[in-house]
């Protein structure tokens, strides 16, 4: 099998090529924000912290705060509701896996605007019960991220014999909550981390549902700011991408550290 694997040089060349392809639009956007009549300048970046401009940029900070709250609630829904359900199906109802997989992957085939048409009457009732805060979008986003999180978590479930692990733990007297939290979850760490990252990325980049349901999030705030100051919108877009990249590194690092501890 080793003879079919690409060489180290090939991997580096492919990685470099992919990195260049992704870096070109980012560098172009960065240069766009640095342009000025006198050459390259940081004046548009420093203007973000000018107290006189605070009111103009306030929608961005509100939208960012709402998006972060939405990301946290969506991740909690995935980890506390969706992931345990997948484990339950794998352990107790394996015959339902195909139907469950179909339902989980279904949202990826439905356009966001069609989802909004179906969700609008539901959100009328949600608004009356829970209010119209932006955090309520987490119910819609929880559906939106299902196809992506399902693949990540299911790959980890398929790679681990959770049935044997759970039966061994139950034989030793562990309750189901202990089995799920201390036996199965550590073995699904990579999939859970990947699902969390994908959920955050989807929430931070989603626009259609938030716009049509009249909720203020990061992407709707960027559209609003873009009408007033295109440079500021580009700067905030770069900052959001940098945040997602740092989050990717942190989660990836946490996954590798956890894997090393588990193997040791």
Task: Write structural notes for this entry.
The structure is a single chain. The protein has 264 residues and is mostly helical. It is 79% helix and 2% strand. The protein has helices spanning 8-34, 43-46, 54-92, 97-105, 112-130, 138-144, 146-159, 162-171, 176-187, 189-205, 208-212, 218-228, 230-263, and strands spanning 35-36, 39-40.
In short:
Helix content is 79%, strand content 2%. The protein is mainly α and 264 residues long.
Protein traits:
79% helix, mainly alpha, two-stranded antiparallel sheet
Which structural class fits the helix and strand makeup?
Answer: mainly alpha
Largest sheet: 2 strands, antiparallel
Beta-strand residue fraction: under 5%
Roughly how much helix do the residues carry, as a percent range? over 70%
Please count the beta strands (DSSP E, at least 2 residues each). 2
Q: Point out poorly predicted stretches.
A: none
Mean pLDDT, as a whole number?
Answer: 84
Radius of gyration: 22 Å
Output the number of helix runs.
13
Q: Describe the strand arrangement of the main beta sheet, using strand numbers.
A: 1-2
| Overall 3D shape | globular
Distance between the termini: 26 Å
**Topology pattern, helix = H, strand = E:** HEEHHHHHHHHHHHH
